[in-house]
Amino acid sequence: MNITVFPKKLSGQVTVPPSKSVAHRMVIAAALSNGISEITNLYPSVDILATMDCMRALGAKIDFDGDKAVIEGIKDIPESAVLDCCESGSTLRFLIPVACALGVDTQFIGRGRLPQRPITPYLEEFPKHGVSFEYNNTMPFSTNGKLTGGKFYVDGGISSQFITGLLFALPLLEEDSEIILTSHLESKPYVDITLGTLREHGCQVEETKNGYFVKGGQHYMPFSGRVEGDYSQAAFFKVANSLGSDIDIAGLSEKSFQGDKKIVEICEKIVYNKNGGLQPFDLDCSDIPDLVPVLTVLGGFCEGKSYIRNAARLRIKECDRLSAISQCLNAIGGKVTELEDGLEIEGVGSLNGGEVDSFNDHRIAMSMAVAATRCTSPLKINGAECVSKSYPDFFEVYESIGGEISREP
């Protein structure tokens, strides 16, 4: 589906969808619990549905209706399973260790860019702990054997998702285990979300000087709760406000562990200029990678040059996000230069409109819809259906606050 967005500032109230990061974790922990959990305010994005289907394949019973899931934890562990992770890196990287800890011989399948996303830490460490891989640098691939505990040495600079996957799996093992980070852990706020979820389900993890210690033989306890609002989705509306829209954003928790809560400070303090303009920024985005596409749009309207740094990992997301957002903005009058691990963005004041591709990336499509509010002519976004990955009704919400769009198949 291609969508043309007409230049218009937005006004009204939105309730942001539930956090995808929190929802993944709550579903997995509930499925590993001994009993029945109830999760409310659950949003049926493609990624969350993939995680639920995978946990069903591993033996959980999940009844999902409206925005509520009733989850009965795994009782009978299957000998083998096929886990379709769709395009979700979180689903894949969280569940490889979980399936191995349960001793399920598993085939993992996926599509889009997922088959090319690395799983290196598991390939390096798991053969030392009883698990073998049938892996040829793509999907499908298989794991065989039951994971055993001990010391796991993990590069913290590839993705925090590997740490989360291990943290979910290690309490299930008989032996005590230790995660030893061999480099600085990037995106640590995501691991903090995981630790909070584990605590709510009765599993204890001790943070050490170089990583985490996890006692074996623990049991997940059922827990009922509500998924909090997603700051990474709120970021699109926060940036739109900085560009002149007037959107009241509801559904966020000020006590959230989400690293993307940083968007509030960025929009309200860092780029705020009491004289009416926007001052440029220089941001280390190692802990907030999901904000980079829409921050690039914001930088295009700041007075001077802005910089995004420590964002090389965005080259292995749903697309090469550094390249994609640069191409999109430059195609409509922006001035964005790719750096080795980030971007240089020169403020231009306004954009021309025209036509861009979404690169099959939900965050690129939504970021360009925000950019359209300050274009001088309509902006066509090709492949806009990709927003279903995280925010299926984004464009309907966009229209509800005054956005004007037209659709074509």
What does this structure look like?
The chain is of the alpha/beta class and 409 residues long. It has 2 domains: 2-17 and 230-408, UDP-n-acetylglucosamine1-carboxyvinyl-transferase, Chain (Alpha-beta prism), CATH 3.65.10.10; 20-215, UDP-n-acetylglucosamine1-carboxyvinyl-transferase, Chain (Alpha-beta prism). The protein contains 12 helices and 22 strands. The longest helix is centred in the N-terminal third of the chain and has 14 residues, at 89-102.
Strand content: 15-25%
Please tell me what the overall shape is: globular
CATH class of the largest domain: Alpha Beta
Rg (C-alpha, Å): 21 Å
State the CATH superfamily name of the largest domain.
Enolpyruvate transferase domain
What is the typical, i.e. mean, pLDDT? 96
| Estimated helix fraction | 25-40%
Oligomeric state of the chains present here: single chain
The largest sheet has its strands arranged as 20-21-1-22
Q: Provide the domain count.
A: 2
What is the number of helices? 12
Q: Give unreliable regions as ranges.
A: none
- Biggest pleated-sheet summary: 4 strands, mixed
Distance between the termini: 5 Å
CATH arch. level architecture of the largest domain? Alpha-beta prism
What's the total number of strands?
A: 22
Q: What is the fold-level CATH name, i.e. the topology of the largest domain?
A: UDP-n-acetylglucosamine1-carboxyvinyl-transferase, Chain
